[in-house]
Amino acid sequence: MKAPKIVAVASAVDLGFRYGCTPAWWQLWKGMQEAGIDLIVTPYRGRPVESPWWRTAPNPSRHEGDLYDGMRSFGARLKRDRYLRRDESSPPDTRSDRAVRQTIWRLVTPRWKRHLERLIEREGGVDAVIVFTVPMAHLRGIPTALRERFGIPVVFYDGDVPMSLPEFGGMDTGFNWYHGADPSEYDLVLSNSEGGLERLRELGARRAEAVFWGADPDLFAPQPVDKSYDVFFYGYGDKFRREWMRDLVGEPSRRAAEIDFALGGRDFQGDTGNARLVGDVPMNVFSHAISAARINLNLTRGSHASVTASSTARPFELAACGATIVSNPVAGIERWFEPGSELVVAEDGEQALAAYRELLANPAACEEMGRRARARVLEEHTYRQRAQRVLELLGLREPVITGTGR
Questions:
Q1: Do domains 5-210 and 229-381 have the same CATH topology?
Q2: Predicted local confidence at residue 79, as pLDDT
Q3: Among 60, 151, 294, 319, which residue carries the largest CB count within 10 Å?
Q4: Rounded to an integer, what distance in angstroms lies between the CA atom of residue 238 and that of residue 83?
Q5: Domain ranges, ordered by start, for the chain
Q6: What is the pLDDT of residue 15?
Q7: Percentages (nearest 5) of helix, strand, coil residues in the chain
Q8: Bridge partners, residue 127, by sequence
Q9: Vertex 155, ends 174 and 133: CA angle to 5°?
């Protein structure tokens, strides 16, 4: 049987951009290779990055992307900030946004159309094209053109629903994906969120299916390191989760000076109390940082936590490392882990502080909870299993019953 061949158009492959989805895409692409897929990845932003798990194609608009990013960074510095901030609720489609799209449609979109047509012709035998979180409007017209010319399905994979939807508008580092876009151009829209599927259909998606995030159990595994923190959280900023940062970090850290709180990452704008900042954690030592904490926090952004079964990568990564997890309430979290057995859900600061004290007083219970969480990942939540689901949804492989993650 011929290996399925897929062309992936990726928002970025370079981890240095700190795009939240990129580390997860790396794991999914590795899972695709393990599932037998011949994958060719071409980045929309930045340089192509070689790996043992996929082949690369160049970025035909790298210069334009770098120029645009430089202009945004300059604008942010003029405002004495790191990013150009968006409203957290229904950010408008501004005149500037529309002007940028018009420029992209005139200069960038035609170049990407030619690039993908040549790539598919050169490769031969391509079974599908999957677009991974590239702003949908920027490729307007391309899915229709590829389908008509090559007769292959074109899929959009949105890994950040519901935050990517127009009513939230995404992070401050990127675009509002659906303004000026036509989801009906795609044969299938994949989403990390089960609860967001109906909204994607309202926006025009002809078919929308959920593929949850997961973890690579080889990259995320328990590490034999000394404990350095009592309670640890890592994240790309606190937008959409400042309330939970206050309740699970700020207030408890002030009330319990004996508990050592640490935050990894950057751009924390809200209440972090007495937690110490430890800076960025490189991907290659992330498992060590997780294993160095007695308790790891899963602080899901409010946009994701409020829409049922809107998965994020973090709880799967923590669980794969055998971490003791305390989480804010997340609608549908029981779809992936059993609260009280495989993780703890704290409804407010009082419950969080009580959980910290109880868990820190019983290291054996912490270890057992972490073992159960990792076993659940191996059973149900590996990226090889997610890759298998993608193949099934594309009709490229018969459905199989998976029982192990390795």
A1: yes
A2: 56
A3: 319
A4: 13
A5: 5-210, 229-381
A6: 87
A7: 40, 15, 45
A8: none
A9: 15
CA-to-CA dists, residue 270 to 110, 254, 274, 353, angstroms: 42, 14, 12, 19
Q: DSSP assignment of 115-136, as one string?
A: HHHHHHHHH----EEEEES--G
In DSSP terms, 382 is beta-bridged to 215
Scanning the structure block, which residue is given the tokens 């970090």?
249
Give 263-308 pLDDT, tens digit per residue: 999 889 899 999 999 998 888 899 999 999 999 999 999 989 999 9
Question: Could you give the C-alpha distances from 302 to 66, 162, 240, 312, 349, in angstroms and in order?
Answer: 31, 10, 5, 12, 16
Q: pTM for this one?
A: 0.89
Question: CB neighbours of 14 closer than 8 A, spacing ≥ 6?
Answer: 22, 43, 45, 46, 47, 49
As a whole number of Å, the end-to-end CA separation of the chain is 22
Mean pLDDT of 191-202: 97
Q: What is the mean pLDDT of the chain?
A: 90
Instruction: Name 21's Cβ contacts closer than 8 Å, sequence gap at least 6.
Output: 11, 132, 133, 159, 160, 313
As a whole number of angstroms, the longest Cα–Cα distance in the chain is: 65
Q: Which residue shows structure tokens 């629903």?
A: 161
How much is the pLDDT for 404? 41
CA distance 330 to 65: 35
Amino acid at residue number 230: D
Question: What is residue 1's predicted lDDT score, i.e. its pLDDT?
Answer: 64
The amino acid at 336: W
Task: Give the position of tokens 């973890």.
Answer: 215
Q: Alpha carbon of 391 to those of 51, 106, 395, 401: distances in Å?
A: 21, 34, 6, 14
Q: Work out the angle between the directed axes of helices 95-107 and 109-123 (0-180°, nearest 10).
A: 40
Our CA dihedral for 339, 341, 346, 351, rounded to 10 degrees, sits at 140
State the residue for tokens 């991907």. Answer: 283
Amino acid at 217: P
Rounded mean pLDDT of 134-145? Answer: 95
Tokens of 30: 């590795």
Arch. (CATH architecture) of 229-381? 3-Layer(aba) Sandwich (3.40)
Residue from 30, 323, 157 nearest 315 by CA = 323
In percent, the amount of the chain with pLDDT more than 90 equals: 75
User: Using an 8 Å Cβ cutoff, are 373 and 318 in contact?
Assistant: yes
Q: What are phi and psi of 42, to 5 degrees?
A: -125, 120
Q: Residue type at 232?
A: F
**pLDDT tens profile 204-257:** 999 999 999 999 999 999 999 999 999 999 998 887 899 999 999 999 999 999
